[in-house]
Amino acid sequence: MKIAIVTETFLPSVDGVVTRLRHAVERFTDLGHEVMVIAPDLGVTEHHGARVVGIRPVTPPFYKHRRFTLPSPNVDGIIRGFHPDVVHAARPLLLASSGAFAARRQRIPLVASYHTHIPRYLDLYRAWTWGKPAVWWQIRRNHAMADINIATSETMKQELAQDGIEDLHVVRRGVDTETFHPAFADEEMRSRLTGGHPEKKLLVFVGRLAAEKEIHTLRPMMERRDDVALAIVGDGPYRGELEELFAGTRTTFPGFMEGRSSRAPSRAPTPSSSPRSPRPWDW
Questions:
Q1: Cα separation of 266 and 261, whole Å?
Q2: Which of 24, 192, 236, 274 is the most core-located residue (most Cβ within 10 A)?
Q3: Nearest Cα to Cα of residue 4 among 27, 25, 32
Q4: Of 203, 172, 171, 198, which Cα lies nearest the Cα of 187?
Q5: Residue 275 phi/psi, 5° resolution?
Q6: What is the 3-state secondary structure (H, E, C) of the chain?
Q7: Does the model's pTM come out above 0.85?
Q8: How far is CA 144 from the centre of its chain?
Q9: CA dihedral 162, 167, 172, 173 (to 10 degrees)
Q10: How far is it, in rounded angstroms, from Cα 214 to Cα 242?
Q11: How open is the CA angle 180-184-189, to the nearest 5 degrees?
Q12: C-alpha to C-alpha distance for 132 and 112, rounded to whole angstroms
């Protein structure tokens, strides 16, 4: 099968959407499918056997730490030349909406997935709340073109259904028991993340540090509990404010982290008789 994925974000960016799509691409190519990714041009041209076609991005003045690509007529020609059996528009709002329209014009089955709840983000960036009706109109229009719409949770599925999105399905979820395995336990890392108090219960947030993540809501809990340490792993435009907000609590900010611990095994042991747990990209 030939699969075209059109997305608003891809490698080398690091976020939940990219992680999900990266694993999907790897899974598809491992199964023998031919995959092409159309994404903002950030310098990556190939991933795990899949061709990555870049479209020139822009940097919005109101969101300078992230680059986006506006809808492009070039997407139609790229998809037409690839002749895919299915098009997946991931978060079809800007560039990915071009993939949705191309699929409709070329009568190609279309899957659309909803990852980032932009209307909620506009509530947090109060200067932009006036744009919510236009954003919802765009979301409804673009997802109406899809044969299948994928939500990442049952809660999100219900909210989208209430706002008029149809043909909704929830992506099957699970835990990658090879990546998240007790064999990777590391006392030195635990001491670092707990600020030198490894006996505390450790809570970890991993992600981009932005206002829409609502990390600040953890602050009251840190005041009430003396048995908890919090590690906020990642970086982003909200980091400075978070460091001020959580000052005086058992909270560490180790910054952006990647790769394996030096003490971690090269591969977590997995019993050969155990069935593989379902993974988020098994759809």
A1: 10
A2: 24
A3: 25
A4: 198
A5: -70, 150
A6: CEEEEEECCCCCCCCHHHHHHHHHHHHHHHCCCEEEEEEECCCCCEECCEEEEEECCECCCCCCCCCECCCCCHHHHHHHHHCCCEEEEECCCCHHHHHHHHHHHCCCCEEEEECCCHHHHHHHCHHHHHHHHHHHHHHHHHHHCCCEEEECCHHHHHHHHHCCCCCEEECCCCCCCCCCCHHHCCHHHHHHHCCCCCCCEEEEEECCCCHHHCHHHHHHHHHHCCCEEEEEECCCCCHHHHHHHCCCCCEEEEECCCCCCCCCCCCCCCCCCCCCCCCCCCC
A7: no
A8: 22
A9: -30
A10: 10
A11: 110
A12: 20
- Tokens for 189, please give them: 């890392």
Whether omega before 265 lies within 30 degrees of 0, making that bond cis, reads no
Tokens of 174: 């699970």
Q: Give me the long-range contacts of 126-135 (CB less than 8 A, separation at least 24).
A: 127/62, 128/62, 135/93
Tell me the residue type at 9: T
- Residue 259, number of CB atoms within 10 A of its CB: 6
- Locate 112 and state its tokens: 């659309």
pLDDT tens series, the chain, 283 aa: 999 999 999 999 888 899 999 999 999 999 999 999 999 999 999 999 999 999 999 887 656 667 789 999 999 999 999 999 999 999 999 999 999 999 999 999 999 999 988 777 677 666 567 778 898 999 999 999 999 999 999 999 999 999 999 999 998 777 888 888 899 999 999 999 999 999 999 999 998 898 888 999 999 999 999 999 999 999 988 999 999 999 999 999 999 887 775 555 555 444 433 333 333 323 2
